[in-house]
What we know:
The structure holds two protein chains of two kinds.
Chain A: H1 2-21, H2 23-59, E1 65-69, H3 80-84, H4 91-100, E2 106-119, E3 122-132, E4 144-147, H5 152-156, E5 161-164, H6 166-172, E6 182-185, E7 188-196, E8 212-216, H7 217-224, E9 233-237, H8 244-259, E10 270-273, H9 274-317, H10 319-327, H11 332-365, H12 375-402, H13 405-410
Parallel strand pairs in A: 3-8, 5-7
Antiparallel strand pairs in A: 1-9, 1-10, 2-3, 2-6, 2-9, 4-7, 5-8, 6-7
Helix pairs in contact in A: 1-11, 2-9, 2-11, 2-12, 4-8, 9-11, 9-12, 11-12
Chain B: E1 2-15, E2 18-31, E3 35-39, H1 46-53, E4 61-66, E5 69-70, H2 76-86, E6 87-90, H3 102-113, H4 117-130, H5 146-158, E7 164-168, H6 176-191, E8 195-200, H7 203-206, E9 211-216, E10 219-225
Helix pairs in contact in B: 3-4, 3-5, 4-5, 5-6
Amino acid sequence: xxxxxxxxxxxxxxxxxxxxxxxxxxxxxxxxxxxxxxxxxxxxxxxxxxxxxxxxxxxxxxxxxxxxxxxxxxxxxxxxxxxxxxxxxxxxxxxxxxxxxxxxxxxxxxxxxxxxxxxxxxxxxxxxxxxxxxxxxxxxxxxxxxxxxxxxxxxxxxxxxxxxxxxxxxxxxxxxxxxxxxxxxxxxxxxxxxxxxxxxxxxxxxxxxxxxxxxxxxxxxxxxxxxxxxxxxxxxxxxxxxxxxxxxxxxxxxxxxxxxxxxxxxxxxxxxxxxxxxxxxxxxxxxxxxxxxxxxxxxxxxxxxxxxxxxxxxxxxxxxxxxxxxxxxxxxxxxxxxxxxxxxxxxxxxxxxxxxxxxxxxxxxxxxxxxxxxxxxxxxxxxxxxxxxxxxxxxxxxxxxxxxxxxxxxxx
Amino acid sequence: xxxxxxxxxxxxxxxxxxxxxxxxxxxxxxxxxxxxxxxxxxxxxxxxxxxxxxxxxxxxxxxxxxxxxxxxxxxxxxxxxxxxxxxxxxxxxxxxxxxxxxxxxxxxxxxxxxxxxxxxxxxxxxxxxxxxxxxxxxxxxxxxxxxxxxxxxxxxxxxxxxxxxxxxxxxxxxxxxxxxxxxxxxxxxxxxxxxxxxxxxxxxxxxxxxxxxxxxxxxxxxxxxxxxxxxxxxxxxxxx
Lengths: 412, 240
């Protein structure tokens, strides 16, 4: 053991001498590894950021929420035409469900419409208008930067009031005086009673609450589309995550009754859950992860091939030196160790530079994708660069170790 | 006591379809403390013999006993250990590591012998003092003259206290005067009781030795004691 440590130490010193003697070449060689490690670390950090964003986005749906809908959201098991032929859910279904259901904490109907929204000369297009009632706020975790959600009176009376998402507020009211202003949708005026705080679930696209407007459901039917145009979704919030399953079972029973299904008929509605979305997202992130790491891994591979190439040149160039060392008693493993350590040091050095670069660059990425380099990534990067060094140095080092001392000494 | 005892050694190279007998059938014994020159024209097999004697190469046939141990069948690593412990090489072209200073060059065999850093430096310094280069320890080979480089190489050969010193044309790259100095140094090392084997093709260099083995076509042509030995003048540079 002591012997091996001794050889390791001497091997390190010998390699450091050799690297110092060839600074420029060592630095140029390192470049490949620097780029490789930088891109791998940066990519895995970015992926981490994307994953985080997805998780935040999903959590805005709430883990204890159920969505009773005509459509199956995340599962493609049921053919499209079968879903399409289902009867629409209507507000009356919601009312019956609300009356019968004992378990939910809150229940609200929603129906959506896509509209252009104007304030004076400013316009935002393709905005998801959610028609719902005052109960809706209790089924979500939404927070307000100013104002409030519309109340029961406004909801039941079909008042022309609305709550807008933070991004819409930013676009229509750059100077931030949105509260109590009136926006126009299809010529109708709606008074803003509340502005949502930023929810940060940008991955949800149009379903991001930051890009939505909420208003009493009757307004949707009155001004934008008929009640039969689009099926209503019933948002259900369970009392706690443990009660989600029970709430779901109850909902299935009640809905079958409401829809008048016979015992042998399948459900003509779906109960959607965040879990389904989570599965979809996890597999998406998985694909991004594999593709991203594969592509960046390629650049690391190119770097490794560069190291191998240089090490071969280095062995060739130092054939005489190897001959001398062997003549005066260097064993095969001493020579092997010398060249392996050399390439490992070069790669480790490159890996460390790459890591520093990646950390700096991740600060820039952080500006638009909240993320940070994880300690596991740092350790992994160091291990990978060491491993790369050993792997790409092995063939050249082995060639060196196997050289015949007589031949090597004769080499000029 | 024989340090070297080789019996019917042959070395055959395969060049294309032809067999080249670099050594046909060579037997010889060398005792401790001897100063032997191996002579012969080029192609006589003296380099091959030196490689075999120096454990750089193994013979195709025959037995090589080094200090009573048969080394003719040893593998690479075992031979490396023998070279490290028992043999000091001095080459025509010095063969120093160009980027290392004299001290580190002399230390080198001790690294592979597993000697600690401190002891290594001490022993290397003593060896350099022996060859009169105490004041050039931190000079790199390209900052030294040819004679000085060869002295560093001799110090490197001496530092492990080897059983034999193998010198392959040690004066071949030096002018006559410097060559004479180096031969004086060898003489002193020999006087000290070291075994020296000198490979050369020059008669007057060979005559520094006490015994000359002449090779021709892979065979020993003559093995004789030198009657009129050339004893170099005491060299001021060496302080043995």
